[in-house]
Design goal:
Largest sheet: 7 strands, mixed
Number of strands: 7
Structural class: alpha/beta
Number of domains: 1
Helix content: 25-40%
CATH topology: Rossmann fold
Bound molecules: S-adenosylmethionine
Number of helices: 5
Strand content: 25-35%
Length: 195
């Protein structure tokens, strides 16, 4: 299995660094340290979140890209981490297998977010937690900006959608959204839901 992210893996952390400093690092530190139990992180990429999980978590780090996963496995972590290379549209896990599913900056670039989030819903146990940090269509001026920039951005990189309403899709597949935190005109959102 290969993906456009295979080619991006070596420069990914450096490319994201300005955004990490501006907004992502703070959001990640608020989101991931409180996730416990059997955890599935989808689209783990180079594993930026892995050092943040507590020792009480056991994390399955899933990604379609082998080069991304190799980098993820080099991260220090307090939680036990196991890597799985798979497509999140067809998660290789039984129904209700996880206490929590997490992800960051993933559903902007999956081919079918509705189906992917449907799979996430399926593998979470009833009452299990969803924690997502996503960039989405903004609010107000943010909506105008993300709508205008989206075609150019997608034409340039081929995978990432700037104006997806992942916050809405999460509800549509059946999650109860309990908390939504938004930053920079609603373009970055921390979404916490329950199955
Ligand atoms: C923009 S990167 C985000 C990486 C990391 N989560 C972060 O916050 O920096 C998106 C990741 O999702 C993975 N991905 C995209 N579509 C996927 C799919 N259908 N199944 C599994 N992983 C996928 C890519 O390979 C990539 O590593």
């Amino acid at each position: 299995m290969s993906s456009v992210f295979d080619a991006l893996a070596s420069g990914y952390d450096l490319g994201l660094w300005p955004l990490e400093v501006a907004v992502l690092r703070r959001m990640r530190r608020r989101a991931f340290p409180k996730v416990e139990g059997q955890v599935l992180e989808v689209g783990v990429g180079t594993g930026v979140n892995l050092p943040l999980y507590p020792p009480t978590a056991t994390v399955v780090a899933l990604d379609a890209s082998a080069p991304m996963l190799r980098r993820a496995l080099r991260r220090p972590a307090r939680a036990r981490v196991r890597a799985v290379q798979a497509d999140l549209h067809r998660l290789p896990f039984r129904d209700g297998a996880f206490d929590a599913v997490t992800g960051s900056l993933v559903f902007c670039s999956v081919a079918d977010p509705q189906r992917g989030l449907g799979e996430v819903f399926r593998v979470l146990r009833p009452g299990g937690r969803l924690v997502l940090l996503e960039h989405t269509r903004g609010r107000g001026l943010g909506a105008w900006l993300t709508d205008r920039l989206h075609p150019l951005w997608l034409a340039w990189n081929g995978v990432c959608h700037l104006n997806r309403e992942t916050n809405r899709t999460v509800r549509e597949v059946g999650f109860r959204l309990q908390r939504e935190e938004s930053h920079i005109l609603g373009i970055f959102r921390l979404l916490e839901g329950v199955r």
